[in-house]
Each structure stands twice: as structure tokens, then as C-alpha cells.
Write a structure and sequence with these properties.
globular, mainly alpha, single chain
Length: about 130
């Protein structure tokens, strides 16, 4: 799954953090109302244009050359741990998915808020 999150602009990106290392990252931000609200605002700004309002990857505004991931389904191709989602948001998902990462655009803390929000989207559709 996770194409979390920007995300998806047009530049190709290659994840540089190994998946095993990413899986070990622990989310230091509690998934509470304040975190989800911040994550939702960030998602609206950076992610919904490709992943859609509900996270299904079905936004009509996504570039035609991209296939944004459905981030609310049961299959998370790039890892389903908070750390793996964090790394995809930061570093992007490429080259086939062409999702540009948000590193340098959002703080680590805001990325964790996005992780919490993406998780809440997945829970809302089950």
C-alpha cells in the first residue's frame, strides 16, 4: 500500500531507507484527536490530489501517468508498520509509482501526524 502520502507528484523517487530499518521506527506521536486533525489538514494539502478524499487512490486530479495506491485497502505493498509508512511519506515511492516524498516540506512530527491520519482512513473503511 502506502503510497502514502504526498504524495504523488510527478518526479520519480527511490526509497533509500531499507524496509527492515523503516519497520523498526516507532511512532512517537499519539493518535489522538489533535494529531488526526493535523494529519487531515496535511493530507488535504499534500495527498488528496492523488489518493483522493477517502484514500482509495481514485482522485480525478491525479496525473494520468500515475496510478496512486489505495491506502485504505488490505494490501500495503511498501509495508504496513508506522515506520514503513513514515519512510514512504518522507522518501516517496518510485520509480513506477512516481510519488515524490515530503522530506524537506514537512517536519518529522507532521509526517507522524500523517501516518496517524492515514491509519484512521483505513479504519474508517473497514
Amino acid at each position: 500500500m502506502v503510497a502514502v502520502v504526498s504524495l504523488g507528484l510527478t518526479a520519480s523517487a527511490e526509497q533509500t531507507t531499507p524496509r527492515a530499518e523503516a519497520a523498526k521506527l516507532k511512532n512517537p506521536v499519539a493518535s489522538n484527536a489533535a494529531s488526526l486533525a493535523t494529519g487531515q489538514q496535511l493530507y488535504q494539502k499534500y495527498c488528496r490530489f492523488c489518493h483522493g478524499t477517502t484514500g482509495r487512490g481514485d482522485s480525478p486530479t491525479a496525473p494520468k501517468t500515475m496510478k496512486p495506491s489505495n491506502i485504505v485497502d488490505d494490501t500495503w505493498d511498501r509495508g504496513s508498520s508506522d515506520g514503513e509508512i513514515f519512510v514512504v511519506i518522507q522518501e516517496g515511492a518510485g520509480p513506477d509509482y512516481k510519488m515524490k516524498g515530503l522530506k524537506g516540506k514537512v517536519t518529522d512530527q507532521d509526517t507522524w501526524h500523517l501516518v496517524n491520519y492515514v491509519r484512521s482512513l483505513a479504519g474508517a473503511t473497514k
